[in-house]
Structures are given as structure tokens and as C-alpha cells.
Amino acid sequence: MARVPFREFQYLSTIKFFIYAINSSTSMAISLIFLLKAAFEQLPTKGKSICKYALLPGLILLSSATALQAERWENSRMTILTCAPGEELYSLFGHTAIRVQDEASGSDYVFNYGTFDFSTPNFYLKFMRGELDYMLSITTFERFLREYRMEGRSVWEQELLLSSAGKAALMEALLLNHQPENRYYPYHFFYDNCATRVRDIIAVQYPGGLVFPDTQNVEQSTFRTAIADYLQYRPWTKLGLDLILGQPTDKAVDALSIQFLPDHLMLQFAGAHDASGKAAVGEAQELLVFETSPKKVFWAPLLVFSILALIGLRITRWRVKRKLSLHWLNVVTFVPPVLLGFLIIFLWFFTSHSVTGPNWHLLWAHPLYLLLLFPSRTSALFQRRLRWLLLLPLIFLLVLFPFLPQDMPLALWPLWLLMAVRLIW
Q: In sequence order, which residues have a C-beta less than 8 Å from that of residue 328 and are 6 or more positions away?
């Protein structure tokens, strides 16, 4: 998804001067507006304040004198842009956008459903709770491509083989979507993101809709395994996502639902056709190409947790023989599962996320270990019964974790073993 929100016309968002324009005057008007905005952003705060009020009347007059009609875009070139995965967490799975290019006027814009605004009140809280709205933004193609060139990410383009009426309808739909009251939408990574929005708004412009080929090898794929393909060289990121994404993530995907991933959407569009059998897009063209050479991580979770478990087991054996206190080891062993348990409970019960619960990791990562960490406050009998109560789910996981309805990482097995031993001794 795009990193920087394009806050187009920040101080003039209520002015709809770029929504309507007529033929030749339209491109001049829009180009002028973007140039004014670019210059405006370079001004100091005081200069911005002065220009804002000086330019406002003129822009209002400009909006009333122009009308951007959909017919203007009948002969334009419209394409799907597919961008390779990036290094940041939000860009790990790639990105999709729509490019609209008009050779007659020289205009070249990108409609981007993957932007968000960092200035949103309570941004991080809304992000955590799954309540952060994404939005459709418009930027120039030059600016869009420059960002991906700087990040070293490849970009491919597929031209939409739409009729003139289809192009006009698509442009009208995009402009309608970009209205202030329409541009925001509740983002969902699996079901409603930058790729699915592009697919949905394009598909309805073809006569009879689009037919996608059922050629994807998704017979045994789930949402979890689909995103795992992008995390082969990021084992710690994969582990973190596996811990917080619950059982719904293990739902099977088909050739349509897997299109939430931009790469798969591009492959599906390559074989898509309308009701009459006409191809939906042209052959993919490379706009930017970068060779990537990901490095394998030596200190993977399974290796690290195995070493930690061996150390913990060794200390346990040594201390038990000498009848020494192991309370500090209990604190080190069980505090992380307690904290993780609080996070799982929060994401499951107190957010709008639909894929974080139910979460079977709550069998071993939960706050009940806190009772074990304060033995002086309870009786010895209570502590013995509590240990057996906490031990049973761990034994269950150690033996049956491959058969659970939620995929459980093998890397956690050494930790479960250490925790089980600590509960016994």
C-alpha cells in the first residue's frame, strides 16, 4: 500500500473545481491547479496562510467556469499498475492502482485506493482497532513512479481494452469515488483493499462483467499460506502475523478471493475476458524493473527458541538437583506469554478486526500465568492444581498442534516444551 497520503488540496478540499471541466480548458485547469498546489507546498507557513485566502476566490471562479465531463476521457489510455512488494510492513504484499493518460492534453494521473492520512485523529489507536479508513487519492503518474523508483520496486502496466463508453463510465465512477463524501472506505486487508477496489470498479465497465480464469493453483491455499509466500525471508514478521491472525486466516481461498494480492490480480487480469470472450487487458508492460536478492535470516525463530528452550531446560535440571529457587526463571518464561495473551484478547474482543479471532494461541498465551508468578498469595494446594490446569493445554498443543483448525508455527514447539517442564518442576 502507498506510504504517503496524497492530501490533495488540503486547505481547499471543499472546492470541487477539478470535478468538472470542459474539453481543452479542463487540462489547463487541472494542470494549473496541480502546479499551484506544488508551489503552495513549498511556501513557509505564513506564506501558505496568505496564499490560501488570496487564491481562494479565483479558484472558486475557476470551478464554476469548468466542467470535467466523462466524454473527454473516451479516447484516453487507461491501465492497471501493479507494484512489486517493498521493504516496509505496509508494502510487503505489493500495490495496485489505476492510471489514466490523455495524450491530447498531456495529462497523466494515478488513482490510488491505498492511501491513508497520518493526521487522522487517534491514528494509531484506530489502526490498532481496525477502524482506520483508507481513501482514494489522485496524484500525477510522474510523482507516483518516482516514489517506486526511489524504493527500488518494479512496476508493471496492463492496458484496459475498454470501449469508449467503458472508459467514460470508468472515469465517471473514479471521479464520483473521489468526492470527499465517497473517497474514504473501511479498509480490510483480505476483502477490501487497494487491489479489490481496483478490480471491482473496473470489472463492471465491461459488457456482462468480467470472467476470470480459474487457473490459479489455490486448491490447498489459505489466506495465511497466500501471504506466507511473501514472507519467506522475513521469518520474524511471519511469526508475528501468525500469532495475531486467528483461525479465519486459515480459510481457503479461490481464484477470486486471492485477488486481494496485487500479483495474483495481475495474473488473473491477464487471462480475464468479458461476456463475449474479448480479452480484458493487453499484455503486461514493464515500466520499472529492479532485481532483488533477498537474504536468508540465519537466526530464525525455530533456531532461537530451540536454543532458549535448551538453556531453560538445562538451568531447570541444574537448579532442581540443588533444590534452588527457580522463581526468576518462571518470570522469564511466563511473562512474555502473559503479554501476548493480553494482545490476543484485545485484538479478538476489543477491535473491529474480523480475522484476529477466534485465536487458538490463547491456549498457551494468556494472563492466567500471573497467578503462578505470585505463589505467596495463594495456598500450596491451589498452586498444584493451577499448575496441572495450565499444563493440560500445553500437552494438548505439543501432541496435536498439526491437527488444529488454525495453523500453529512449529517454531513455538520448543517454548511449549519449556513451559510444560517449568509447570511440572
A: none
Rounded to whole angstroms, the maximal C-alpha distance in the chain is 90
Q: In terms of residues, how long is the chain?
A: 425
Q: What angle do CA 81, 76, 282 make, to 5 degrees?
A: 50
- Cβ atoms < 10 Å from Cβ of 126: 16
Distance CA 62, CA 2 (A): 31
Report if pTM > 0.85.
no
CA torsion, ordered 345, 190, 121, 35, to nearest 10 deg: 160
pLDDT tens digit at each of 425 positions of the chain: 444 333 333 333 333 333 333 333 444 444 444 444 444 455 554 444 444 444 444 443 344 334 344 447 778 999 999 999 999 888 999 999 999 999 888 899 999 999 988 788 887 788 788 888 999 999 999 999 999 999 999 999 999 999 999 999 999 999 999 999 999 999 999 999 999 999 999 999 999 999 998 765 556 699 999 999 999 999 999 999 999 999 999 999 998 999 999 999 999 999 999 999 999 999 999 999 998 888 889 999 999 999 999 999 999 999 888 888 889 999 999 999 999 999 999 999 999 999 999 999 999 999 999 999 988 888 999 999 999 999 999 999 999 999 999 999 999 999 999 999 999 98
* Cα(316)–Cα(314) distance, integer angstroms: 5
Question: d(Cα 92, Cα 153) in Å, to the nearest integer?
Answer: 11
Query: 270, 264, 271: which is closest to 284 by C-alpha?
Result: 270
Rounded distance, CA 138 to CA 194, Å?
Answer: 13
Written as one letter, the residue type at 202 is I
C-beta of residue 226 within 8 angstroms of C-beta of residue 258: yes
Q: Are 308 and 246 in contact (CB under 8 A)?
A: no
User: How far is residue 39's CA from residue 279's CA, in Å, rounded to a whole number?
Assistant: 42
Strands (E), 272-311: 273-274, 285-288
Contact criterion met (CB below 8 Å) for 411 and 300: yes
Collapsed DSSP state (helix, strand, coil) of residue 317? helix
Cell numbers given for 200:
471491482
What stretches of 103-230 adopt beta strand conformation (E)? 107-115, 133-140, 155-159, 184-186, 210-211
Sign of CA dihedral 199, 200, 201, 203: positive
Look at residues 127, 116, 99, 96 and name the one whose alpha carbon lies nearest to residue 7. 116
